Amino acid sequence: MIEHLDRRAFLGLTSTAVLGGLCGACSNGSHPPQPHSGNSHSSKPHWSYSGDTGPDHWASLSNAYKVCATGADQSPINIASSEIKGTSSRVTLVYRPVSATSVDNGHTLQVNVDSGCTAIVDDTRYELRQFHYHTPSDHTIDGKHRTVEWHFVHESVDKNLAVVAVLVNLGTQNTAFAEILSHPPDKNGDRLRLTSPVDVAAMMPSDLSALRYQGSLSTPPCTEGVKWIVLRSAVEMSSDQVAVVQHVLNNNDRPVQPLNGRSLQRAAVTVE
Question: How many folded domains does the chain comprise?
C-alpha cells in the first residue's frame, strides 16, 4: 500500500474527504477514508469516477496516486471461477451491535463505527473502522457486476487493512440496513448520528464462504497490501433501498484491474 500517513489519511475521513474510503474512511477516522473531497480547499487533489478526474487519470492527479497506475496488486478484480486455487486460513469476524455515524463524503455513503467489532485474519486482529458502498459492485464475479457492494474496512494496530466485501442483489428489503438507508445525510459533508446501534453481523449473508486475495484500496491513493475477503453469497436489498444509495452516488465503481498472477483462494469465514 502506501505509507502509514496515507493510510491514516484515507482512514480518517473528514467531511471534506472524498470517498470515505474506498474503501472509505473507517470509523471515527479509522478506516480507509476516501482520500479527499471535492472541496476546492482540500489538501488532496480532487478525484472522481468520470472525466478528467476519473479512474484513467487518478495516477496523474498527484504523485501520491502514482501506484494507481504502476501497482501490480490493484483492486478491484474480476473473480473468475477458473482462477480459484487452494484454501487460505480461516477468517473470524467478532461482531456486535455498535454505535455509528453516517456520512455523505462525496464519493459514497460511509458509516463510521465505534469500537467493538473486529476481524481476525492470519492471526492478526483488525478493528472495524467503517463501511461504505459501491454501485454497481467494484468486484465482478465471472465478469458480472452485482447491484451494490459494501466494503467493511478493518485496521490493525500497525495500520494494515483488511476489507470484507458483501455483494448485494436486488430483492427484498434488508432490515439490517433499514435505519442507515431510511435517513441518509442530506448532502455532501453532512454527518448523522444513528439513533440505534448498527448490527454488523446481521449485514452478513448466511453463507459465509469467501474468496481471498491480496489487493489495494480501490480509490486513490490505491495503496497496496490490503487483505481482501470477498463473500461469495450475496445479500438482498429492496429497490427502494438501492435507490437511496444510487441517489447519494451512482456509478462509483472502479474498473477491474489485472490479476497479474495473484493467488485467489477459498476461505471459511465465521461470525462470533
Answer: 1
